Every structure is written in C-alpha cells, then in structure tokens.
From TrEMBL:
Gene3D superfamilies: Glycoside hydrolase/deacetylase
Record flagged with keyword Signal: yes
Coiled-coil regions, chain positions: none
Reactions accelerated catalytically: [(1->4)-N-acetyl-beta-D-glucosaminyl](n) + n H2O = chitosan + n acetate
InterPro entries: Glyco_hydro/deAcase_b/a-brl (IPR011330), NODB_dom (IPR002509), Polysacc_deacetylase_ArnD (IPR050248)
Subcellular location(s) per record: Cell membrane
EC numbers: 3.5.1.41
GO molecular function: chitin deacetylase activity
Organism in which the protein naturally occurs: Botryobasidium botryosum (strain FD-172 SS1)
Keyword Cell membrane found: yes
Protein name (Swiss-Prot/TrEMBL): chitin deacetylase
Amino acid sequence: MARACSVLFLLASSLAVSARSWYQPRGHPVHELFNRQNVGGGVADIGSAAWTAQYPADLATASVPAAWKAAYTNAVNAGLIPNIPVTTLGTDGLAKYPEGFDALSPTVCASAQECRINGSIPQIWDATPGYAGISFDDGPVDLPTASDLYAFLKENHQPSTHFLIGSNILANPDSFKQLVQDPQQELACHTWTHPVMTTQTDDQVLLELGWTLKIIHDSTGGRVPRLWRPPTGDSDMRVCAIAYHVFGLTTVIWNYDSNDWQIGAPDATGTYTDESVTASLTGWLNGPKTPGLLMLEHELNNHTVGCFKDTYSLHKANNWISTTVSDAIAAPSWYQNSLNNTAPVAALDVAAPAPSTVPSPHTLAVTTSTTPPASAPSAATTKGSSKNASNGVSDVGPLAMISSTALLGALLCSVAFW
Ligand SMILES: *[C@@H]1O[C@H](CO)[C@@H](O)[C@H](O)[C@H]1NC(C)=O
Ligand SMILES: *[C@@H]1O[C@H](CO)[C@@H](O)[C@H](O)[C@H]1NC(C)=O
Ligand SMILES: *[C@@H]1O[C@H](CO)[C@@H](O)[C@H](O)[C@H]1NC(C)=O
Ligand SMILES: *[C@@H]1O[C@H](CO)[C@@H](O)[C@H](O)[C@H]1NC(C)=O
Ligand SMILES: [Zn+2]
C-alpha cells in the first residue's frame, strides 16, 4: 500500500463549471463544509421530500444513469472489466459459477471462497499491524436503535467506519443525520439493497454501488467514499473491477467474522449468542497484533451493538490503535476527494475521474469547480490508465486520473492502488 506521490499541478485558468457546483465558494469556512446539506444552496436537506425524490424507490425498475454507463463502457472497451458470468445461489446460500469457471482461479477469484485478489485491483483483508479498523455494516437502522451506537461512539470520541446500505439511508434519514453530524465517522458503501453481488449483472452492480455513493455524496458536501464492502463478503474479479475502474472504490473484506448478525436472527445458519460473539471478539482483541484487525461487526440491533460495547475497553487495554478502516489500512484519505469529514472537498461526481490528489486546505481555493460527468474523460480512456492494469500494480488508477478540461500541468506520481 505504499504511496509515494509527488504532484505538481497547475490549474487551467478557465475551469469548467458544473451546473451542480454547489460546493463551498472560495473562502468559505472549512468547518461548515460537512454540514453543507443543511445550508441550502441547491442541496436538499436530508430526509426532505426533495432529498428523497432524488433516489430510486425501486432499484429493479431503475435505469443506469448515462454518465455511469459511459464510464463503465469505457472501462469495458479498455479491457478492464473481466467477462465472468454471474453466479446463481445454491440451496446452501453460496454463489456458484457455471461449468468452466473456477471460483479460486486468478481470473475469477471469489472472495466468498477466500480467494484474495493479487494486486491488479485493490482489495483489502487485513489492517496494518497494531491497528484495529472498527467498522459497522448494514446501517443506518431506525433511530432509537441507531442512537445507542452513535451516542456511544461520540461519547468515546471513537472514529469508525460505517458500511451503509443506500436504501437504509433513504428509509432512516434521522439516523443518517445523526451519523453525519459526528465528524469522526467515516461513511462507506455497502450497496443499495444488499444483494449477493456476484449474482448481479454489470448494470445491477452499477446501480447498487452508484446510488449508494450518490446519496452519501449528495448528503455530505460532495464526499465520494473510497471504500465499499460486499454484502456477505461475496465479490470476484468482475465485481471488484467495476467497483474500482468505474467508481474508484477499494473493496474491503475482513479477517475475523464475529457473526454478530446471527444472534437471534430467524435466518441464522449457526448458533450464536451475545456470550459467544463477545467471547470471539474478546479473543481477537486479546490476540496477536499482526495482522491488524478488521473484524466484521454490524450496527443492526442491540445485540450486535451490545457485543461491541461490551468488548470496547479491550481496544485500549491491549493498546490497539483503533480507528476508521481507511486509517487502519493506511489509505491516503477517507474519501476519494477529501481527507475526512472536515477537510476540504474537491468537486467530484460519482463515476467521474477522481482528482489526482486528495485536496489539502491549500488547494481548496482552486478546486471549486467540476466537469460534468458525461463529458469527462473516464478513468478507462484516459491515457495511461489501462497500460498496467494487469501487472500487479496499477500506477495510474482512477485516483490519479485528471480531467483534462479541469487541470493542466505536470504530474509526477507513483501510486500503488490508491
Ligand atoms: C495470490 O497470492 C497468494 C500468495 O502468493 C496465493 O496463495 C493465492 O492463491 C493467489 N491468488 C490468486 C487468485 O492468484
Ligand atoms: C436498544 O437500546 C436502546 C438504548 O438502550 C433503546 O432505546 C432501544 O429501544 C433498543 N432497541 C431495541 C430494538 O430494543
Ligand atoms: C481531518 O483533516 C484535517 C486536515 O484537513 C485534520 O486537521 C483533522 O484532524 C482531521 N480529522 C479527523 C477526524 O481525522
Ligand atoms: C508498467 O509498470 C512498469 C513497472 O511499474 C513500468 O516500468 C512500465 O513502464 C509500465 N508500463 C507502461 C506502459 O507504462
Ligand atoms: Zn451486510
């Protein structure tokens, strides 16, 4: 994950301005950025009718926005999206490939069967030694239940990562609002409807990821998450390639599964109790520091949250550096276009090329415009993006893509994955 980057760039004097450039004007106090959605200026308040109306009520009847489709088509044409068939779910609940496709081969590499992608696309299983990346999947749930966790995290000044379900954001805006108001919480993507992703067609993958990124982007002053986690840990080379080459997303799995969601669940596949899950978490938190911890936990209900709270003191007792997943895996930032929830944001539309570098306060004043996604060169077609796509380390990934209409200049950058 080493990232050595030295970037020198000059901005074109005439920047293309998007009709939707509602980002902070020059000189606007940075600390207000994260609450931009409540300031007006063309962005609907979370939970308002206007906000809700922007998102599909039913993904099954939604069509893929043209800009996302264009970015995808460019990636396909550049040979970046492997042509692997969708899986079907067996009676055991496991995704199965058709004859001739080996789930464990490097070309398919099914994460649900523990195949780890080697280099060509970013996929994370472990945290940095000594770090515990705290994460919660499946939120936001309804407010009384969600408040319990969010208040606990805030009280303890504890940064963590939330792999959010887009349709849950839409259904529980008050919970989402509370989450967004704690600047220590990293927002990441867990799909819109929580399907087993390898069963989904390419178009469905675009919808699941794109809309979830979009609702987070629209509600947080334009931040585009860097991380996504596939539901049930199910992904493969095709799904991860779409996530990365179309949306710039790094796939995050885990190295310990608490199975906390199974406590009292009607569809549980094993016997798990508050005590058994707490015992597992205790063992891992008292265990070795290498690799660092990425424990799968959920913000689903009082059982899952209770197990987290009951073992929380062990983070400190064992001297873990317990933080967001991005920080625990040494990613350069929480969002593709911003260091975190309070730092400046570079204008970026979902599925548009990411900026060449994460904005620092010094670049804020000159990164207040964006290029409309439909006309922006996609990551896949920008010169240099595909040439090293399959040799282990892509030296120019979506993060390093520059919109040619927005930037001119010299770029000296060596980026591994990020
Ligand atoms: C990736 O590399 C590891 C270690 O070299 C190996 O065990 C694994 O099978 C490889 N996976 C693929 C898909 O090639
Ligand atoms: C979970 O706990 C919170 C705080 O104790 C409580 O307000 C809420 O009703 C509980 N939720 C459920 C579903 O039991
Ligand atoms: C967010 O980034 C800013 C730098 O722009 C830094 O000062 C601040 O401490 C960071 N906040 C968190 C929660 O990491
Ligand atoms: C691909 O990567 C290798 C090693 O990182 C580099 O030497 C080579 O120039 C790259 N190829 C192209 C076409 O840029
Ligand atoms: Zn989930």
